[in-house]
Amino acid sequence: MKVTLVVPCYNEEKNVALFYEVAEAAFQNKKIEYDIVFVNDGSKDNTYKELKALFTAHSDKVSVINLSRNFGKEAAILAGLKRASGDYIALVDADLQQRPEIVVDMVNYLEEHEEYDVVAAYQEHRIEGKLMSGVKKMFYSLINKVCDIEFYAGASDFRTFRRTVAEALINMPEYHRFSKGLFSWIGFNTHYLPYVAEERNAGETKWSVKKLMKYALEGFMSFTTMPLRFATYLGMIVSVCAVLYMLFVIIKTLVFGEAVPGYPTIVTLILFLSGVQLLILGILGEYLARIYVQGKGRPVYIEKEFLHGSKEESEK
Ligand code: UDP
Ligand code: MG
Fold it and tell me: Does ligand 1 have an atom closer than 6 angstroms to the CB of 13?
């Protein structure tokens, strides 16, 4: 029985060597066999050099995928999943916020509980500001209301799962990959394991407020078409109001004769209705853009090199 650790790395030059050491220590004297697939997601620092050195020193345990540029964590994870060979697969960050020791517990849990396919770590207490946790809470309550699948607040993508689950994930062909949503969509029995995230070892987080917002929108758009329906409802409401107002204007004209003043009403209506139309066009556009990108059928990532075993492979 073997577990493969899939580790996406973007500018983690100071972390990867330590990660290997910690992982090795975690699995020492355990009955679990392991190997690590590092995915260099177009790092701009010396991460790839460090990874190559790790590979040279421990080619039995380490393989390295080098992507042709930065494709984002979700793409890096997919690349790693496709190359993972273990019976179990664990997704772990390179910055040691997610301790490899916990993977051992996760694998043991899966070994003991055949009815479960996934063990997901979730943070009971997050080290973050009140504002951030409030915003996140709102996001999850909203997304759970409008999406057909359930999102588990606080669950991270620090997970260990069986091969079958990995294959299900690989078979999801979407370009925009929101892994939390993908995990809920594919189903399988998930056990949630509370854990406390450590402080980042070195370097800094890649999440900015802008990136987080984009990510949240991605999750939203990928798993619900509710905004499109919202556009329909809003259109209906506005149409009903327009008909009522039209009747009012006709009756008023018939009874009181034609009145010239009415400029404010017209201006207000034009502004309001153009606003509504633009909003709805925007919503349509968001979905259209996604269909466009998906329609081009571009790969989610491109592998430049794959270092494994004792030979080197170069792929386009
Ligand atoms: N990561 C990646 N590609 C990216 C951004 C991040 O592979 O474009 C990796 C990063 O190297 C780390 C993991 O994803 O191993 C989580 O990133 P980070 O620590 O910045 O996120 P946080 O822990 O702050 O949520
Ligand atoms: Mg981190």
Answer: no
How many Å apart are CA 77 and CA 72, to the nearest integer?
A: 9
Ligand 1 pocket member 97 (CB < 6 A): yes
| DSSP string computed for 27-45 | HTTSS-EEEEEEEE-S-SS
Q: Which atom of ligand 1 is nearest to the CA of 71?
A: 8
Nearest one of 90, 93, 115, 113 to 103, comparing CA atoms = 90
Distance in angstroms (rounded) separating the CA atoms of residues 304 and 76:
12
Q: What is the dihedral of CA 56, 58, 60, 62, to 10 degrees?
A: -90
Note the pLDDT tens digit of each residue in 265-305.
787 788 888 878 888 888 888 888 888 878 888 889 999 99
Question: 272 CA to middle of ligand 1, Å?
Answer: 42
Ligand 1 contact, 92 CB (< 6 A): no
| Cα separations in angstroms, 257 against 248, 249, 251, 252, 254 | 13, 10, 9, 7, 6
Per-residue confidence (pLDDT) for residue 316, from 0 to 100: 41
Percent of the chain that is helix, strand, coil (3-state, to 5) = 50, 20, 30
Q: Is the pLDDT of residue 178 over 60?
A: yes
User: Which of 307, 27, 304 minimizes the C-alpha distance to 19?
Assistant: 27
Q: Residue 312: what pLDDT?
A: 52
Under 8 Å between Cβ of 67 and 79: yes
Q: Is the pLDDT of residue 57 over 50?
A: yes
How far apart CA 82 and CA 66 sit, in angstroms, is 13
pTM summary value: 0.80
Find the range with the poorest average confidence among 21-35, 75-89, 92-106, 198-212.
Answer: 198-212
The CB of 201 under 6 Å from ligand 1? The reply is: no
Ligand 1 near 28 CB (within 6 A): no
User: Which atom in ligand 1 lies closest to the alpha carbon of residue 95?
Assistant: 15
